[in-house]
Amino acid sequence: MTLAVSVLLAIPTGYLAAKSAFARRLILPTLDIFQSVPIVGFFPVAVWGFVRLFGGSAFGVELAAVFLIFTSMFWNLAFGVYESLITVPEELRMAADQFGLRGSLRWSHLILPAVVPSLLYNSLVSWANGWFFLIASEIIAVGPARYTLPGLGSYLAQSVTAGHNNLTMLALAVLLATTVGMHLLLWGPLSTWAERFHLEESGDRPRRPRIARILGRSRLVRSASLRVVTPAAQQALRVSGRVLDFLGRHAAGSAAVFFGLAVPVLLGYGGWRLYLLFASRPLAAELKGIPVDLLFSFLRVGLGVLISAAVSVPLANWIVRRVRWRSAALAVIQILASIPATAFFPVVVILLTWGLGMNAGAVLLALTTMFWYVLFNVVGAASAIPKETREAAFAFGLRGPRYLRRVFLPAVLPSLVTGCITAWGAGWNALILCEYLEAGRRVHEVRGIGATLDRATYRTGDMQVVAASLASMVLLIILVNRFFWDPLYQRVAERYKMEA
Amino acid sequence: MPAPVAAESPAVLLRLEGVEQFYGEKIRILGPIDLEVREGEFLSLVGPSGCGKSTLLRIVAGVLRPSAGIVRMGGRPLKGVNTRAAMVFQSFALFPWLTVVDNVAVGLEARGLPLRERLKKAEKYIDLVGLSGYERAFPRELSRGMKQLVGLARALAVEPELLCMDEPFSALDVLTARTIRDLVLDLWESPEVMTKSILLVTHSIEEAVAMSDRVLVLKANPGRIADEVDLRGLPRPRRPDLPHVRETVDRMYSLLA
Which residues of chain A lie closer than 8 angstroms to B81, CB-CB? Predict the structure, then answer.
């Protein structure tokens, strides 16, 4: 449900960004920043706000959860829409002009189809992300108050806290079954349907490894696809075309005015509260520790990125080379990846009780979220290496590690960097959750910004510390993005582009 | 067929008066250009790459507004998209998510024709270009030549008074290009097709000589008309190995050099 709302809101946002230069200058930086901000960290703030709004009822918490899940999905989707719209070939857009596609026809025949693949791909990712946040958010506490929403997430969390390993495993199994079921009945057929929306000129475009193509052969998926999902999706396309056209004609102006007013007001109000927070009483002692906390967390995330990259490259090479195993391996990996990382926490907790250090535990936990981003990107790039390039390498005797260094690594480098950037962003999210764990009435924690944030949120309820650690973390992430990842990506993308 | 040589010159369908295109404020990439397409005429624009011939075609189709000058269609100044013209694109520009029949019908749908009529008309033109049986196929399942046939059917289906073709054969192999070229000429002469005026942009002199009544030779920097060659006297069909056809081609090469 939240996903549907995000999708519907993401389309106009991305469309506006692609269409008007003014909107672009406003929207893109916003998306960029929010995409790289760890949403989990904002949970306490959101809960606090919504609970107050609804007079302290659990409904406020429910809304806060939905709101956060929405924000976690929205940025990706809007960005995807923007990117696919600017890559629509010029001739195609001209053809649409020339044959008079205007209004709702233009939406349903040109704009929406062009963004479907990216929307679907990002929805898949968002879906997994949504679970991640759901589990994280169903059980939360703000200061002394504790709110529990009924759901699989809280069940999982409770069983971990209580130390019931059997129940934990049961809950995990249910989650796994749900994930596989969703793949079979919804994502598989949808991907099959969306195949037709890929904009390609020639037949040999690099394809994203898709579980859909393996699943596509099963009868269950095919009938679900033909009878239910495809017609429903086509209908949805037509209806949303009309809705968006209507909105574009009647609501665009008022929406612009609304946002133009709402954003400054909200920012101003937020700033004022923040000022009050810091000015009303002396600074908390914990604030001094924040730089060191940040450093520790930074090292953990960095280590996570390094490990992900180091494992992904040989693994991807191995997967891609074995043609027969490739699809099966990809299917397994994709299902594993769509399990929300939060669900792996119990497993790590069990490891912890067996004597694994919490430092290693935290990194391991973060890895369960980060690793997939890197692996997927690298595998995608690896399967796009032209067969001729590989054959040429072998013909000239490049084998083993030398092949890896001279051909494989340069070919996947741009995607490797993309994957690392995403993993870096996701890592912070995970770290907030995994530097501080409560299991079996014991608290496992390590020094880090996530732990500080959690402690302030759950135990002391000190909003000053919450705000300060959030702000410093966001600042660090943005700085590293600007001055490390962005230039790195630019250089790598330019030098190692696969182009004949 | 010898072109409709009425004693008096036939009515002018399209007229460009002092059309210019600037890049930014100062750099003139095209014009000033004056030209006419007469009714029933097959006019070609030939020139080296960068002479603005595709830009000119986009201006005629009304998808690009010229920086200066007037485009008149049937005497009236053109505002917005030229609904009396239809375009065939170099890289086909088919909608990959629509089937062949939906692609062909897309212009009719935009003109608000009811479903039954639009299918009937689309079928007719799919049949005329020889693609019957492929109505339900998606573009990616077709060869390049077949894709361009869909592009041609889509343009003809709206029954435009002027057919604009932007390098329609240059993304095809030589044999396919020749087949489709002959088909275009057949359709132009056939009573089944309403469209009688064609504006072709090409860089191939052979193509222009094989097809047109009149050829405008363009030069680059800025794009402007350097010469006009009247080919109405050249009998059809113009096989490339006929002496007078080769002679004409040679003469035009020397014009361009």
Answer: 97-98, 100
Residue A395: give its domain's CATH number: 1.10.3720.10
Higher pLDDT, A28 or B122: B122
Pick the CATH number of B1-84+196-257 from 1.10.8.190, 3.40.50.300, 2.60.40.1180, 3.20.20.150: 3.40.50.300
CA proximity to A122, closest of A181, A75, A85, A86:
A75
Query: Looking at residue A195, what DSSP letter applies?
Result: G
Task: Give the CA radius of gyration of chain B.
Answer: 18
Q: Which of A87-96, A166-175, B112-121 has the highest mean pLDDT?
A: B112-121
SS3 per residue for A368-383: HHHHHHHHHHHHHHHH
- Residue A314's domain comprises 282-500
Query: How many C-beta atoms surround the C-beta of residue A204 within 10 A?
Result: 10
ipTM over 0.85: no
Across chain B, mean pLDDT equals 90
What crossing angle do the helices spanning A152-162 and A165-182 adopt, rounded to 10°? 160
Q: Which of B87, B90, B96 sits opposite A98 (nearest CB)?
A: B87
Q: Which residues of B touch A102 (CB under 8 A)?
A: 110
The model's pTM: 0.73
Question: Could you state, in order of their start, the residue ranges of all structural domains in chain B?
Answer: 1-84+196-257, 87-159+169-195
- Tally the residues of chain A: 500
Judgement on whether residues A297 and A188 belong to the same structural domain of the protein? no
Q: How far is A256 from chain B (nearest CA, A)?
A: 27
Under a CB-based contact definition with an 8 Å cutoff, are residues B103 and B95 in contact? yes
- Long-range contacts at B18-24 (CB < 8 A, ≥ 24 apart): B18/B68, B18/B69, B18/B70, B19/B56, B19/B59, B19/B66, B19/B68, B19/B69, B19/B70, B19/B71, B20/B66, B20/B67, B20/B68, B20/B69, B21/B52, B21/B55, B21/B59, B21/B64, B21/B66, B21/B67, B22/B67, B22/B68
For the domain made up of B87-159+169-195, the CATH class stated in words is: alpha beta
Q: Which candidate from A100, A116, A198 shows the least CB-CB separation from B110?
A: A100
Helical segments of A322-399, H only: 323-338, 345-353, 358-383, 387-395
3-state secondary structure chain B: CCCCCCCCCCCEEEEEEEEEEEECCCEEEEEEEEEEEECCCEEEEECCCCCCHHHHHHHHHCCCCCCEEEEEECCEECCCCCCCEEEECCCCCCCCCCCHHHHHHHHHHHCCCCHHHHHHHHHHHHHHCCCCCCCCCCHHHCCHHHHHHHHHHHHHHCCCCEEEEECCCCCCCHHHHHHHHHHHHHHHHCCCCCCCEEEEEECCHHHHHHHCCEEEEEECCCEEEEEEEECCCCCCCCCCCCHHHHHHHHHHHHHHC
Partners of residue B93 in chain A, C-beta under 8 Å: 89, 91-92, 94-95
Residue B175: pLDDT band with limits 50, 70, 90: very high
Dihedral pair phi/psi, residue B208, rounded to 5°? -60, -45
- Give the distance from residue B23's alpha carbon to the nearest chain A alpha carbon, in angstroms: 18
For residue A268, is it within any domain?
Answer: no
Q: What angle do CA A99, B115, B183 make, to 5 degrees?
A: 55
